[in-house]
Structures are given as structure tokens and as C-alpha cells.
Amino acid sequence: MSEHILRIDPAGVPRATILIVPPLFEEANRTRRTLVLAMRALAADGFAAWLPDLPGQNESLVPLAHIDLARWRQALAKVAADVAGPVIIASVRGGALIDHQAKASAWWRLAPVGGASLLRTLMRARVSADREAGVTSSLETLEEQARTAPLLLAGNLLSPAMVGGLGTGEAQAVAPLRSIGLGADGIAGTPLWLRAEPGEDAVMAGAIAADISAWSKTCGIS
Amino acid sequence: MTEANTVDATLRALLADVLGLGEARAAALTDDSGLFGELPEFDSMAVATVLTEMEDRLGILIDDDEIDGEIFETYGNLLAFSLRKVTD
């Protein structure tokens, strides 16, 4: 099944297409507005910007419980293959766990994170919610349950393959790659993906777009 | 900066990031400032995010068994817990 892709096209022939791989789960919602603002800035700078829905996320009709990291990697490879012209993959946070199977001219990663860290936070949210509801659970008992049946973590029903994949998931080597964090040596902004209530940051979006554009030039793409 | 000051600054920055407090509100937190149950943004997902970020930024490991409701009652409790963990 093909998934929805939010596309923002420039006037005229694009210099290249920036394929945005969003953060995973709730972090995608918290960053979406800022990423789309970055896409608009990229389009104004002559790039096409694509933000695909991952199967099981956002508007997708596929149940999340049927998905694992391998499915996401394949889905992104298919989207990248549909692009005419050069592709630069720009992934954010957990997006970096699934961006290496797609063919691209260059990669750009913002604040990449290991799968284990994402999984730990999701598990803890469940333990914390259970505690409020008077149910005793622990990371250990949840890990045990997740081996044989889908596990509901912070509203996400995750398959055993997904939980297993996240537990060991690390960003893979790709080249050429620019990996960047936040702060003085990186993108000016705050970690919106951590925010309990979604925010947006137009200045940060502009910095993201400018950095991707500069990286494209450095790589000799356009 | 002493270690206690560093932990305090790290914790305020972290709460500002997760709860979207802004620098002024984060700087104004006192030992008695209520967190969980007091700040509407501080839900169970925020608690989980704070714990994982504490591990990353303070270089500590937090075991499930160490967490009880009291730690998140006030800023002072959370700071005391963090200081205990980094000096362990």
C-alpha cells in the first residue's frame, strides 16, 4: 500500500529532493510543524521536500502492530526510488535508525538517537501510567511480555519484532553523512521532540533548511 | 562551578526542554516548586522523558525500583535524588 507523502515543490525544476525521515512515534508529532516549516524554506531555496508517512504512523491505514524497523527501511527505500533526480535524506532522531537502505546522494542526520533509548522512554511511560492506575509493572515484566505478543506503549501497539529491533537499533554507517546536534556547534534551537506539549520554532526550521542546503553544496549536488 | 551547581543547571535545562517552561520559569523553580500533579504538562510521558534525559545528560543509570512518586513531587526532591545518583 502506498502511503501519503507531504510534498512541497519549488518553482521550476528542483535542485534536488530532500527526503525527510521524521522521528518515531510521539516525537514525530512534536516536531512535525517545525519540519514542515523547514520544508517550506527548502522549497523557497529551490529544493523539493518530501515528508512520507511511515507505514503504521500518521495517516497510514496499516496497523502499527504489523510493522517493524525492516518494513520502515523498505518503505523509505521505495519512496527514494520514486524520486527523479538526486536525493538527500534528512533524518531526525529515530529516523536515523531506518534511513540507510534507501539510495541517496547524501545523508543528513539531526540528533540521531539509539533505539534502546527510545524504547526505554516508551516503557517507562507505560510503567508510570500503570503506577497511577494502581497496576504494578516493570521494565523487566514488559520486556518479557513483548517477546511473545504486541505491547501497548504510550498509545503505540508495538510488535515483538518492533520492540526487538528498537532494543538493538543503532544508526548505520552511510556516506557522505553530516550528523549534527543542537547548540552552538549545531542547529540553534531546543529539542522540540522532547516537549510534553508540541511547540514550533521558525528560527530552528530556517537553520535546518540552511544547513541542509549548505551540505548539498558541499557534496557537490547543487 | 561545583558539581551540585552543574547538576542543578542541567536539571533546570532539562525540565525547560521537556516541559517547555522557558528559561525564566525554569530559573524560578525552588526546592518547594511542585512538579508532577502541579504542572499540567508533567504527565506520565513527560516523567518517562525526564528519566531518560537525566540518564543521558547526568551520565547515570536509574533503576525502576528507585523511582517512587515522591521524587517527582517537588523540584527539591528531584534535585536531591539526582545529586545522590551522581555522587553514588
As laid out across the biggest beta sheet of chain A, the strand order is: 1-3-2-4-5-8
| Anisotropy-based shape of chain B | globular
**What is the CATH architecture annotation of chain B?**
Orthogonal Bundle
Share of residues in strands of chain A: 15-25%
How many strand units of chain B? 0
Q: Which spans of chain B of ≥5 residues are poorly predicted at pLDDT below 50?
A: none
- Quote the average pLDDT of chain A: 96
Q: Do you know the CATH architecture of the largest domain in chain A? A: 3-Layer(aba) Sandwich
Describe the structure.
The complex is a heterodimer of chains A (222) and B (88). Chain A has 222 residues and is α/β, with parallel strands linked by helices. Chain A has two domains: 5-113 and 171-218, Alpha/Beta hydrolase fold, catalytic domain (Rossmann fold, 3-Layer(aba) Sandwich); 115-169, no CATH class. Helix content of chain A is 38%, strand content 16%. Chain A has six helices and eight strands. A six-stranded mixed β-sheet of chain A has the order 1-3-2-4-5-8, with helices on both faces. Chain A has a two-stranded antiparallel sheet with strand order 6-7. In chain A, strand 2 (17-21), helix 1 (26-44) and strand 3 (48-52) form a beta-alpha-beta unit. The model of chain A has no long low-confidence stretch (mean pLDDT 96). By secondary structure, chain B is an all-alpha fold. Chain B has a single domain (3-87), classed as Non-ribosomal Peptide Synthetase Peptidyl Carrier Protein, Chain A (Orthogonal Bundle). Helices cover 58% and strands 0% of the residues of chain B. Chain B has helices at residues 3-19, 22-27, 44-58, 75-87. In chain B, helix 1 (3-19) runs antiparallel to helix 3. The longest helix of chain B is centred in the first third of the chain and has 17 residues, at 3-19. Chain B is globular. The mean pLDDT of chain B is 92. The interface between A and B is medium-sized, with 24 and 21 residues.
